[in-house]
From TrEMBL:
Matching Pfam families: Tail_completion_gp17
Organism: Thalassovita mangrovi
Protein name: DUF3168 domain-containing protein
Length: 135
């Protein structure tokens, strides 16, 4: 197995989301770590990831399940769901070039929408699966 493509995959996902007009019209920022200070009303975080070996005779490869979270401070889900839909539209079947390796495919797996435990905020955690090759 190769975990070597993981940083390149995250960078490509970030570039895809930050360059997508539908996403940027709905969110105020995309973060790997939550910054200190005031946050936008709706923002994205790139979150947890699980990788599994998918190497074969032709070379190294892996399957990455990663989370993109939509976090909003509104009391309703509508704005968060609109942002989540834009993220999904931007990522599914996206043709993304990686700085290392090759993206074979990227698919939506599931989403969980919930109220934040503190305040009226909303959170949608979307799980995506990417198959990558490292040759």
């Amino acid at each position: 197995m190769s975990y070597g493509v993981t940083a390149a995959l995250q960078e490509a996902v970030y570039q895809r989301l930050s360059g997508d007009a539908g996403v940027t019209a709905l969110v105020g920022g995309i973060y790997d770590a939550i910054p200190v200070g005031e946050l936008p009303e709706i923002y994205l975080t790139l979150g947890p990831e699980t990788a599994r070996d998918r190497s074969d005779k032709t070379g190294g490869g892996a399957e990455h399940d990663f989370t993109v979270s939509v976090i909003g401070d509104a009391s309703g889900f509508l704005a968060a769901k609109q942002a989540a839909a834009a993220v999904s539209d931007a990522l599914i079947d996206a043709d993304m070039a990686l700085s290392r390796g090759h993206l074979v495919g990227l698919w939506f797996v599931k989403a969980v929408a919930a109220r934040e435990t503190s305040g009226d905020g909303r959170r949608i955690d979307m799980r995506f699966r990417a198959r990558v090759e490292d040759n």
